[in-house]
Amino acid sequence: MTRPDYAEKIPNNVGLAEDRRLQRALESWQPDFLSWWETMGPTLPTQDVYLRTAIDVRGEGWAQFGHVPMIDYRWGIFLADKNPDRQIAFGQHKGDPAWQKVPGEYRAELQRLIVIQGDTEPASVEQQRNLGATAPSLYDLRNLFQVNVEEGRHLWAMVYLLHAYFGREGREEAEELLHRNSGSADSPRILGAFNEETPDWLSFYMFTYFTDRDGKYQLGTLKESAFDPLSRTCEFMLKEEAHHMMVGTTGVDRVVERTAQVMLENDTDEVAAFGAIPLPVIQKYLNFHYSVSLDLFGGETSTNVANYYTAGLKGRWLEERRKDDHQLRDDAIMVDALADGQIGQTEVAALVGLNTDLRREYIADCAGGVKRWNRILADAGLPQRLYLPHVAFNRKVGAFAGIEASPAGEKLSADEWAARKGQWLPTDTDKTFVRSLMQPVYERGKIAAWVAPPRNGINGQPFDYDYVHLA
């Protein structure tokens, strides 16, 4: 069965009606979720929003579009099609049939991985809940709400696994996912990046480009898992995640494009007076969100991740395309490290360096966005260029957490960092200026002056379509 059953109280394609106990447990969790959504979800009142809803888990035509009141959005549980012949592709169980149940010896580790992934999903909704009040266009407002409802569905995906496979402890963890809140002093979200505020739309674009891209890579490693329900869940989540990254990629595109236009129209780099965001400020926001997202990959070395890989719980990005033995017992990798107090590299066992392997895949992907943003500047005839800062810059996790470094990778003293960090990270003045531009534009076909309109609308609709009906 691939098409979700929308006749059910909880839309699903996992045969929920055939397991009455599980169905009742999830239906008892559903009101708590809706209460969380009403309390911690988007604050801007709307009548309805032009949203996509999953109707299949395969190929083309997997979603339908239509105006839906957000509180009536049909959050559900969708797994990609099961491959009955699927085998484990890596680790000590390589070649064995994929697991349909949780092996007892890996129960705690799998539960922890699912909880951490699940905790990020509602966190981003909480971080973005006030952005509707300053949306630069109805098109952008619609994209914000689409991201929000799909992050809510991704929470459902992890909650289903916790309820279905982890018994009472899983149900308790599912409840806790609604009790932690982004930025809370008493019960914050598990990962640091998901306790940062997202106070403006430049931050939102950077978050959906950099931090949601981290999500892509984390989901990609879980998609390789020997635990087949987790693999199939993540496979479908990646389909939805692509839209979130598109919002970030094209959002930054449009900010850079508008800034370049204003620079050319007024023959100046000082575009703040003309209501655009200066390129140095864009670079500062890039520096912050990129470095915070790098921390989400953990330390450069990790015995836990090595154990996850050997056990078959979490693979590498595109594991089956790798040209090695998929066990890595005798392989080595160079990882970033402090060598004799200096920023450098050291050789470690490949299994221990899997976080570095994944982070480097991510860095290469991030570089693609910077390349396209620089193409916008080049096409405008401007000499300025954006860049990714050095991997040691502004790090709070891993080998470089205890030092300070410039975006060029120069090791700095604490005093030098304090004196110069305002050149590289958003200052209070920068943040206040960016927020001053965040005036809402809710008229069809209109857009704020600090960002260019998109080249294409949603699902073939024009930019001036009525994407959102406000209350």
Protein described:
There is one protein chain. The protein has 471 residues and is mainly alpha-helical. The protein has a single domain (25-470), classed as Ribonucleotide Reductase, subunit A (Orthogonal Bundle), CATH 1.10.620. Helix content is 45%, strand content 8%. The chain has 11 helices and 7 strands. It has helices spanning 20-40, 107-127, 138-165, 167-179, 201-223, 228-266, 279-295, 303-311, 354-379, 414-420, 428-437; strands spanning 46-54, 63-68, 332-339, 342-349, 404-405, 411-412, 468-470. The protein has a 3-stranded antiparallel β-sheet, covered by helices on one side. Helix 1 (20-40) packs parallel to helix 4 (167-179), helix 2 packs antiparallel against helix 3 (138-165) and helix 2 (107-127) runs parallel beside helix 4. The model has no long low-confidence stretch (mean pLDDT 96).
List the total number of helices: 11
User: From the alpha-carbon coordinates, what is the Rg to the nearest angstrom?
Assistant: 23 Å
Number of structurally distinct domains: 1
Strand percent estimate: 5-15%
In round numbers, the mean pLDDT is: 96
Please tell me the CATH architecture by its name: Orthogonal Bundle
In brief, what are we looking at here?
The chain has helices at residues 20-40, 107-127, 138-165, 167-179, 201-223, 228-266, 279-295, 303-311, 354-379, 414-420, 428-437; strands at 46-54, 63-68, 332-339, 342-349, 404-405, 411-412, 468-470. By secondary structure, the chain is mostly helical. The strands form 3 sheets. The chain has a 3-stranded antiparallel beta sheet, covered by helices on one side. Strands 3-4 form a two-stranded antiparallel sheet.
